[in-house]
Amino acid sequence: MRGRGYDIDNPRGGGKSKLADDAGVHRAAVSRLLQRQSMPDLETMRRLSAVLSVPLRDMLIRSGRLSEDDLPVTVHRHQEEVSGAQRLTPEEAARRMGVPTELRETFVKVAKQFLPEGT
């Protein structure tokens, strides 16, 4: 945020408000995120990542809520076609990652929010 010119350290600098305005999110969401009081919803994270020019995956990892192992980098569709590789389904990813059976349905629902439509 600082690197993008948002003065988030000075309470009167207006950086938090400007970031919230630029992203079209509520100012309280930015404050709660910075104070680590709560994790913004997915749409808020998408908007912030776009304004900050940070991939959503990186935002989620930097937040500390998910690890790189939780969000492995996938091969682009073109590379899949060339290499013959198959994209993991959220169900298969949950199984391979050892997500407990009782949490898999929730994991799959959340993971599908990150996939392009039609996949």
TrEMBL record:
Q: Where is the composition biased (Basic and acidic residues)?
A: 1-10
Q: Which InterPro entries match?
A: Cro/C1-type_HTH, Lambda_DNA-bd_dom_sf
Q: Where is the HTH cro/C1-type domain?
A: 17-59
Q: Which residues cross the membrane?
A: none
Region annotated Disordered, chain positions: 1-22, 72-100
Q: Which domain of life is it from?
A: Bacteria
For this entry, the protein name equals Helix-turn-helix domain-containing protein
Naturally occurring in which organism (per UniProt): Streptomyces amakusaensis
